[in-house]
Amino acid sequence: MQGYDPSAFPPFAVTVDLAVFTVRAMRLHVLLVERGQDPHQGRWALPGGFLLPHEAAEQAARRELAEETGLSCDTTEGLHLEQLRTYSDPDRDPRMRVVSVAFTALVPDLPEPRGGGDAARARWTPRDEASPLAFDHDRILADAHERIGAKLEYTCLATAFCPAAFTLGELRQVYETVWGVALDRPNFRRKVLATPGFVEPVAGGPRRTGARGKPAALYTAGPARSLHPPLLRPEGRPR
Amino acid sequence: MQGYDPSAFPPFAVTVDLAVFTVRAMRLHVLLVERGQDPHQGRWALPGGFLLPHEAAEQAARRELAEETGLSCDTTEGLHLEQLRTYSDPDRDPRMRVVSVAFTALVPDLPEPRGGGDAARARWTPRDEASPLAFDHDRILADAHERIGAKLEYTCLATAFCPAAFTLGELRQVYETVWGVALDRPNFRRKVLATPGFVEPVAGGPRRTGARGKPAALYTAGPARSLHPPLLRPEGRPR
DNA sequence: GTAATAGTGTCTATGAGACATTATACC
DNA sequence: GGTATAATGTCTCATAGACACTATTAC
């Protein structure tokens, strides 16, 4: 990036798009908004919006996340938000040149969005019922899904899908839901507990989850951020 | 990304920045250019430049790669190029609002760059002698280095640093150079050969490498793109 | 009792780390 | 010969996968 005439640069619009995932009822859900304006009006799309003039992409993404989920900025402060990649195909928006920085967010099961911001409507949609989306958002969603699946393998990110206190069964369901596979319960338990700092036991007594079976002990997310060695998907598929 | 007035969007300049790595003489090198113009004139920086009006970021990155390395477009066609992330801090360029999409490229040992394009000079610099760079390029370089180190673990990317035919000793040196650690030779060999499609033997006879020791057999990159199970760094450090 | 989930224990196969040994080149 | 690297083999330990078994709840 050297040698340029600032008055002669080609102008672009820069936006952020968000793939916000949650696990509810054993299914992976993604937050979608119904478009109220012209390009692709009435179709569903990932939430997002323009960068403000003095705003970094991360800030814009966090602002949009708060607007679209209807949560306070304090609540969204602690949510996991991560840059995915940037989409810059010249034809991705029919009206103008728009470069979009995509982000992935992982949230615990939240109340239905209140449709804030400038979106006509917003709702949680099962990931496999999301397509087709407006613009290139099918592609962004696929990339985001693949990314979170891969990150579950070598990070402690799965706890971001869980409430503050959770059972190992709930944590295992996160893996099973995102990966779409069944995991061996005893082996999963052993692996998680053998990783220092992944989860930490809660002093209080156990609670029942589905009102069936033995009550499970509660855990909270530990200080660790990565898994060594990783917890690989069964039949680890190539990227 | 919904609901906007195309005439009212805040304008941004969009650039690409490249972290081009190679391994030469057992050290990791990165391609740098000396800035010829005003912001940070005379300082070293990562190569890069503006997106053309109808160009995707990937195209712009490949074009800049060809210009800066002085290679033909045919040659750069097959080189590994991968989007790293986007840097959008409002103050990252002192003159205007510039959003930069950073890419990482891995190339075999190439001839000294001819300083093409609009860069005053270009040269290969040992990675640990690169700082300080202009703008936020120290940060970009650090992110890129961490990324390629991580990708060596679970992809077959190391062959991108090697010429068409290479010895297992040369491949091992790639890992040792990028990771900055020494690896056990027999175990490395066993691991690589046990991964189907990572490398494939060359029919022709062996060749000598450093004119010392037993001549090594030659291999070419195989069709595999990922490593299962991964080849983890010793004392795998957390991200 | 049955059903369902939590939690413990055990066996085995695989893979990685450590390291000894042999082979083949140049000096 | 000495040195340096390639290539093969061996041993051990850690881990993952499979799966049996017990524990505790709701019905």
UniProtKB/TrEMBL annotation, chains A, B:
Pfam families: NUDIX, WHD_NrtR
Keywords for the protein's UniProt record, in alphabetical order: Hydrolase
Alphabetical list of PANTHER family matching this protein: ADP-RIBOSE PYROPHOSPHATASE, SLR1690 PROTEIN
Occurrences of domain Nudix hydrolase (ranges): 11-147
Entry keyword annotation includes Hydrolase: yes
PROSITE patterns for this protein: NUDIX, NUDIX_BOX
Region (Disordered): 204-239
Species this protein is from: Streptomyces sanyensis
Family annotation (InterPro entries): Nudix_hydrolase, NUDIX_hydrolase-like_dom_sf, NUDIX_hydrolase_CS, NUDIX_hydrolase_dom, WH-like_DNA-bd_sf, WH_DNA-bd_sf, WHD_NrtR
CDD domains in the cross-refs: NUDIX_NadM_like (cd18873)
Family membership: Belongs to the Nudix hydrolase family.
Record carries keyword Cell wall biogenesis/degradation: no
Protein name per Swiss-Prot or TrEMBL: NUDIX domain-containing protein
Domain of life: Bacteria
